[in-house]
Specification:
Length: 133
């Protein structure tokens, strides 16, 4: 698993050199989107998590839960967004919401989990980037 992550990170770095405008554009887009504005960053991240549940992308679910935890979400806030995802997806939504809840529990326990390499993993933002700085 670690070798897969290193390979994917290396490939992403290579692709980013070959296509800095597009790959950098995606990073800048995420940095701009997931900042505090009229809507707090944590709610935007929880929305992205709910969409990731609907899309059934476990690496994205874990990444957005982790970023939302970094923004100080409460368990109650998480559960309300999980309820939205479950309502929109029915029984499959419940199964994928459980993955998000497990990721939240890992965050609260100080565990980082073992995310698979994804665009979310490659686009991790620094604390200043998330605050719009």
């Amino acid at each position: 698993m670690m070798q897969e992550t290193n390979t994917a990170n290396g490939l992403f770095a290579e692709l980013r050199k070959l296509s800095p405008v597009v790959t950098g554009g995606l990073l800048r887009m995420r940095q701009q989107t997931y900042r505090d504005g009229a809507v707090a960053a944590k709610y935007k991240l929880l929305t992205a998590m709910a969409i990731s549940i609907a899309l059934r992308c476990e690496p994205c679910i874990r990444a957005y839960v982790r970023l939302a935890c970094d923004q100080g979400i409460t368990q109650e806030e998480l559960v309300e967004f999980l309820e939205v995802a479950m309502t929109m997806q029915g029984c499959p939504g419940e199964e994928w919401a459980l993955k998000a809840y497990a990721a939240y529990k890992d965050c609260m326990d100080g565990e980082r989990g073992s995310e698979a390499p994804t665009c979310c993993k490659n686009d991790e933002m620094s604390q200043t980037d998330r605050k719009g700085g």
